[in-house]
Specification:
The chain is of the alpha/beta class. It is built from twelve helices and five strands. The chain has helices at residues 14-26, 30-43, 48-54, 59-72, 91-102, 117-128, 134-143, 162-178, 249-262, 281-289, 307-319, 327-343; strands at 186-196, 226-233, 238-244, 268-272, 292-296. InterPro entries: Homeodomain-like_sf, RNaseH-like_sf, RNaseH_sf, Tc1-like_DDE_dom, Transpos_IS630-like. It comes from Pseudonocardia dioxanivorans (strain ATCC 55486 / DSM 44775 / JCM 13855 / CB1190). Residues 186-316 form the Tc1-like transposase DDE domain.
């Protein structure tokens, strides 16, 4: 039998040689380490047979590694894993699992409103003859993008002028962001926050495992309530607020006067909801006399008021997880947060830019 001609690795430049040496020292994959070692041995002048003997391989395997490296470079060192056990559950079964998980149990005659993994596995076994474990169901659902999520309520607006009112508010938001309002004009989102009573509130925080903070339990609400009237200036992103014992039209009008004093020039566009004090005749007359426009959100559509997102942050960072001993302490915490937020404020420029409410075919009564 004729002896096969010897094969050697092509000439390497210094950078390639250094990279090859580094792979032989740091590679954790056995296949990659062996291939790199064979190539390095060939670089050092050893024959394929000698290199194969160093790494417990056959001479033919060493020649294939060297040829592959000469053709593909360092990519030839990486193993190309393939094969393995075929999946036990095919696309049809996986689609069935996801479809059943998305179906309320009561629709298939079961006496509960939601699935647990164990109940889902039992139903698949009894009704569809699919033998599967809870862990596999969890992996199948996760891979398909089906997640365990909380159910949320939604109040659809029944305002016959929903589209016109929403378009007006979005137009003001967009014009404010683009600087297209008339000289000195501002858009300010106003709403009431509260009632603020004194009670322990659950919250979240970083604690040792199984050692979260504990708050006292109480069914009493001593100390009365307070109300916060707040305005969000879109041009600066800052919050302005007042805390009062009541939230009648007198308090609302007084707050509007304070905003007018703060911004004496230009028209004020006040975004607010349909709370009855906002529609009081005395409030409307004062607004007409002082170049203030009240822009009302559609009924059951307070989410169009930009200040609601600020209230969410305010509640999360000042009230959740708290148990203030007095209104003074609670209001001091609110004041501290508002000062911090105003120092970090930025102009409000993007309100739901990718939301479906921006589509011309948006249906207001569809959640």
């Amino acid at each position: 039998m004729a002896r096969q001609p010897e094969v050697f690795v092509r000439d390497l430049d210094p950078a390639e040689a250094q990279r090859l040496v580094k792979i032989t020292r740091t590679a954790r994959d056995r296949v990659r380490l062996r291939r790199a070692g064979i190539v390095l041995a060939s670089v050092q002048g050893r024959t394929a047979t000698e290199a194969a003997a160093m790494f417990a391989a056959t001479p033919q395997y060493a020649r294939e590694v060297i040829h592959a490296f000469n053709d593909k470079g360092f990519a030839a060192l990486d193993p190309k894993w393939s094969g393995g056990r075929p999946p036990k559950f095919g696309p049809h079964t996986r689609e069935l699992i996801c479809r059943v998980a998305r179906t309320p149990p009561q629709q298939v005659g079961l006496p509960f409103t939601t699935w647990s993994l164990s109940k889902l596995v039992e139903h698949l076994r009894e009704r569809h003859r699919v033998e599967i474990s809870t862990d596999t169901v969890r992996r199948v659902l996760r891979a398909a993008g089906v997640r365990w999520q909380a159910t949320k309520t939604w109040k659809a607006s029944n305002d016959p002028q929903f589209a016109q009112k929403m378009a007006r508010i979005l137009d003001l938001y967009d014009r404010s962001a683009a600087g297209q309002l008339t000289s000195g004009a501002r858009v300010i989102c106003v709403d009431e926050f509260g009632p603020l009573n004194l009670q322990p509130r659950p919250g979240r925080g970083w604690f040792p495992t199984r050692g979260p903070a504990r708050l006292r339990a109480t069914y009493n609400r001593y100390g009365g309530v307070r109300h916060m009237l707040a305005g969000l200036d879109l041009a600066s992103g800052q919050l302005f607020y007042r805390l009062r014992d009541r939230k009648r039209w007198q308090e609302f009008l007084a707050f509007l006067r304070q905003l007018r004093t703060r911004f004496p020039r230009g028209r004020l566009h006040i975004i607010c909801d349909n709370f009855s004090p906002h529609r009081k005749a005395e409030v409307a007359d004062w607004c007409n006399d002082h170049d203030v426009e009240l822009v009302f959100t559609p009924t059951y559509a307070s989410w169009l008021n930009w200040i609601e997102s600020e209230f969410t942050a305010l509640r999360y960072f000042t009230l959740d997880g708290s148990d203030y001993p007095s209104h003074t302490a609670q209001e001091a915490a609110i004041a501290g947060y508002v000062r911090w937020a105003n120092r970090h404020a930025r102009p409000k420029k993007r309100f739901a830019p990718e939301s479906r409410i921006r589509r011309p075919d948006y249906l207001p009564n569809v959640a």
